[in-house]
Write a structure and sequence with these properties.
CATH topology: Zincin-like
Number of strands: 3
Radius of gyration: 14 Å
CATH architecture: 2-Layer Sandwich
Structural class: alpha+beta
Helix content: 40-55%
Largest sheet: 3 strands, mixed
Number of helices: 6
Length: 125
């Protein structure tokens, strides 16, 4: 277990987003990146995960591939990284940073419309 202050955790998340390759970062629009302590019950339902699953992050929004012409003037989608579960499994700050990086990229993949099944197919897990 490795713990950091919320401010440091948020800085790692923000740095991860800033370090994305430009071709991806420039295509992300109307998305808010946030940190919460734990998943909400509806996050488990949204991801079809059992309640005892350790969720590390979630994409709350409409993927680009599912948006229709009526999708405008909407609140930002949210990519949420869950601090407490990630800290529980991290060994040190380098490990925590790498795990955050993986979660952020995974949730960005969902924003672009890539499913968990497809991520498994391309060995992105």
């Amino acid at each position: 277990m490795y713990e950091v202050e919320r401010e440091r955790f948020e800085a790692i998340v923000a740095g991860t987003v800033e370090d994305l390759p430009a071709e991806f970062r420039e295509r992300i629009a109307n998305v808010e990146f946030a940190v919460e302590d734990w998943p909400r019950p509806d996050d488990y339902a949204h991801t079809n995960s059992p309640a005892n699953t350790m969720l590390l992050g979630v994409y709350r929004g409409v993927p680009l591939t599912k948006r229709q012409s009526g999708y405008h003037l909407t609140l930002p989608d949210r990519i949420v990284v869950f601090q407490q579960p990630l800290q529980r499994i991290a060994r040190d700050e380098a490990d925590l940073s790498e795990r955050i990086r993986h979660v952020v990229r995974h949730e960005i993949a969902h924003y672009f419309g890539i499913s968990d099944d497809r991520l498994r197919e391309i060995d992105a897990y």
